[in-house]
């Protein structure tokens, strides 16, 4: 168990902004109480967070992990390690890999590499179009089944309004952003 003492807790979900103590039991929050009022902290390790902010983990909605294909720039392991050091507990990785994450096999590769050595959760975003070239719709349903959480061509334009509409309609039917 770990007792985080005297931290300024900022939690937008509960509209909390107060100095509190938080008792952690493994990965779970066991108790939150005003400073000095936690009741189950016997034998807990202590961390004095006085002067520090304690907040829910951040999520990076637009990360470039570069793996597969551009590992000389970054890998899932190094990118998620950097994310964790910055207070992020999850990242959504863009599909701008080589090959582009436009099919289920690339999505599965990313998730397999995540299991092998990521420091935070990785939520892959699949390409909206094949190769992110903006010309033909990607294998979105198969990628969703493999584990994508959204689609994007990561700043690259889709060639026609018709294709944009197809992608949006298809994603709506899949309940996928």
Number of distinct helices: 4
Rounded to the nearest angstrom, the distance between the terminal CA atoms is 38 Å
The proportion of strand residues reads 25-35%
Low-confidence runs: none
Shape: elongated
> What portion of residues is helical?
10-25%
- Give the rounded overall mean pLDDT: 94
Pairing-aware structural class of the strands and helices? alpha/beta
- Note the run of SSEs as H and E: EEEEEEHEHEHEH
Number of strands: 9
Radius of gyration: 20 Å
The biggest beta sheet is recorded as:
5 strands, mixed
Briefly say what this structure is:
The chain is α/β, with parallel strands linked by helices and 177 residues long. It has helices at 76-85, 104-117, 140-146, 161-173; strands at 2-11, 16-25, 28-34, 45-48, 53-54, 58-63, 88-93, 121-126, 150-151.
Q: How would you summarize the topology of this molecule?
A:
Blueprint (H helix, E strand, L loop, with lengths): L1 E10 L4 E10 L2 E7 L10 E4 L4 E2 L3 E6 L12 H10 L2 E6 L10 H14 L3 E6 L13 H7 L3 E2 L9 H13 L4
Parallel strand pairs: 1-4, 1-5, 6-7, 7-8, 8-9
Antiparallel strand pairs: 1-2, 2-3
Helix pairs in contact: 2-3
